[in-house]
Amino acid sequence: MAHLPELALIIPVFNEEQRIAKTFNALRDFLKHAKISRLDIVFVDDGSRDGTVRAIQQFQGECSSVRLISYPDNRGKGFVVRKGMLAASAPYRLILDADMSTPLTEFEKFIPFLEKAPGKAEVPSLQSRKRGTVGNSEKDTLSLRIL
């Protein structure tokens, strides 16, 4: 029997109120079809001044696997990504931009590798074939790096 992986999605956000609904829809779809045993969704707010935090709090009411970490001041994407990675507890962690420039369906291509080797130091990464573009599944290639 295959081992289903546990996954954390780290989503840094800053003033994403206008596009966060697209993120929620993508997460809902992923939750319906994902072949994983546990999913943690960690939004890390980097001092948003719009309704981003309020929207995430509403989404938390509908999805119990959502956590929100919020900082009052803008500290930069690197800071919030690091904080999200440290706060996550799942062994596999995926960083996603809130605009879903890389669709969650791309991650599903890695699940067979994670099922075969649970706990190994294999890191999935998405690399673009065309310089300067990421997120277009026709041009992107998936790779598995061994650490």
Describe this structure in words.
The chain has 147 residues and is an alpha/beta fold. The chain has a single domain, classed as Spore Coat Polysaccharide Biosynthesis Protein SpsA, Chain A. 29% of the residues lie in helices and 28% in strands. It has helices at residues 20-33, 52-62, 77-87, 111-116, and strands at 6-13, 38-46, 66-71, 92-95, 122-128, 140-146. The strands form 2 sheets. The protein has a 4-stranded parallel sheet with strand order 3-2-1-4, with helices on both faces. It has a two-stranded antiparallel sheet with strand order 5-6. The longest helix has 14 residues, at 20-33. The chain is globular, with a radius of gyration of 15 Å.
Short description, anyone?
Helix content is 29%, strand content 28%. It is α/β, with parallel strands linked by helices and 147 residues long. Helix 1 links the parallel strand 1 (6-13) and strand 2.
Furnish the topology, listing elements before pairings:
Elements (H helix, E strand, L loop, with lengths): L5 E8 L6 H14 L4 E9 L5 H11 L3 E6 L5 H11 L4 E4 L15 H6 L5 E7 L11 E7 L1
Parallel strand pairs: 1-2, 1-4, 2-3
Antiparallel strand pairs: 5-6
